[in-house]
Amino acid sequence: xxxxxxxxxxxxxxxxxxxxxxxxxxxxxxxxxxxxxxxxxxxxxxxxxxxxxxxxxxxxxxxxxxxxxxxxxxxxxxxxxxxxxxxxxxxxxxxxxxxxxxxxxxxxxxxxxxxxxxxxxxxxxxxxxxxxxxxxxxxxxxxxxxxxxxxxxxxxxxxxxxxxxxxxxxxxxxxxxxxxxxxxxxxxxxxxxxxxxxxxxxxxxxxxxxxxxxxxxxxxxxxxxxxxxxxxxxxxxxxxxxxxxxxxxxxxxxxxxxxxxxx
Length: 263
Description:
By secondary structure, this protein is mostly beta strands. It has a single domain, classed as outer membrane lipoprotein receptor (LolB), chain A (Clam), CATH 2.50.20. Helix content is 10%, strand content 44%. The protein has helices spanning 2-5, 26-38, 133-142, and strands at 43-54, 60-72, 75-84, 92-96, 103-108, 113-116, 149-156, 159-166, 178-184, 189-197, 201-208, 213-216, 219-222, 224-229, 234-245. The chain has a 13-stranded antiparallel β-sheet. The longest helix is centred in the first third of the chain and has 13 residues, at 26-38.
């Protein structure tokens, strides 16, 4: 989740001009995939993340909060604390990735209670946005696909990119059959990604612009991006400010008993 909200992955096929090249191979993709993984910092603190959700009628809802995350031996822990709107102020989300199963918790201030998210609820929307718990998990896991394929080069909005295809691991419960990502090779950040259900149906699309690529130390992130649910006709814009990478974070931020306190 470190790069999901501070540089997720995932705009329009006509903007792409695919280059001719050799057939897709697993080995050709490895340097770029390794670079993408290396761009994930050991920890990150986002001073403010703004989520602006728009429904199919044009109605909008805005959430603001803080994001904290760590990456220890490819195991991610992330916590998102909501500051506004007033009816959600104090709500918090915690994800702890495990070798066999993940732990996901939500704190609801109105109930003054921590609830663990399990089963089918993991595909539910996160506070009315176009991101589900499983989406957040799947984006992170995509970069660990050992069979990722490099499809070729392209130009996206005037920016040279390389196209990668990822597939869920056999042990992952994912509704997506594959993810295609258009990666800017200097930053190793995806400026576009499409989430497929079946062979040809794009369910969700992520997009960002090269002009919104920013750095925190040696690490790159996208400061402005959009996630669209093409089936539902909805979208969520994500704006990120004040990123501090490789910062020491308190253990209490990732403890199910204390993650929602303070901050």
